[in-house]
């Protein structure tokens, strides 16, 4: 189900990274429009890197030992009291447990309101034919299926690098991300998790700068510092 780049020349982008928080466990390059799911142990840190700039990562996670408890954007926002997440903030579960802590963030602009592209939204926005194009909701369902998670159980996403400003009147608008090549966010696991990422395939609006590109993924062992 994973869609990774293993070709020669794909991994050098991930060498010599800025401010590595601990020893590396593994590294991958996620293909444009790709998807992946994997286990992330408590105390380990996942770094998501925008390799080419302006690329959104739709992110979800589940308590590995209790898949009913999963990422909750609404609980996260209620506890923080603000919709903007960055360094020092926690991503929380339905039951309000801290699932991840943002320990480094070179962008500071992410979205936790807009959800994922899906067949219904694509149909509504771009017409019937667009309902069959690749989308994040089906990407996430595909990689979580081996864990027994159904499409209907896929939660709202934390949209890393997505830029959705809110006006004083409460209106929202998707505009181009501000992330540049090499920008990253570090997420330290506060419990044993299953993580799923869709490298957003949307090219009909500006959320990815109209072009889907690669993401870098690196997991560090930061247990000693957590």
TrEMBL record:
Residues 30-194 form the DUF1989 domain. InterPro entries: DUF1989. It comes from the Bacteria. It holds the Pfam family DUF1989. This is Urea carboxylase-associated family protein.
């Amino acid at each position: 189900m994973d869609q990774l780049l293993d070709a020669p020349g794909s991994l050098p982008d991930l060498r010599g990274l800025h401010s590595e928080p601990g020893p590396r466990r593994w590294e991958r390059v996620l293909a444009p429009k790709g998807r992946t799911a994997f286990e992330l142990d408590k105390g380990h840190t996942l770094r998501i890197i925008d390799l080419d700039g302006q690329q959104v990562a739709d992110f979800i996670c589940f308590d590995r030992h209790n898949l009913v408890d999963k990422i909750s954007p609404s609980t996260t926002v209620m506890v923080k009291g603000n919709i903007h997440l960055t360094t020092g903030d926690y991503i929380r579960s339905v039951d309000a447990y801290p699932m991840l802590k943002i320990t480094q963030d070179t962008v500071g602009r992410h979205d936790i309101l807009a959800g994922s592209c899906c067949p219904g939204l694509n149909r509504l926005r771009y017409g019937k034919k667009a309902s069959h194009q690749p989308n994040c909701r089906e990407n996430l369902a595909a990689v979580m299926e081996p864990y027994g998670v159904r499409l209907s159980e896929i939660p709202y996403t934390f949209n890393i690098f997505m830029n959705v400003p809110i006006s004083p009147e409460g209106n929202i608008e998707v505009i181009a991300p501000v992330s540049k090549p090499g920008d990253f966010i570090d997420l330290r696991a506060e419990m044993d998790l299953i993580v799923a990422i869709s490298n957003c395939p949307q090219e009909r609006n500006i959320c990815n700068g109209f072009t889907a590109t690669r993401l870098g993924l690196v997991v560090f062992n930061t247990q000693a510092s957590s």
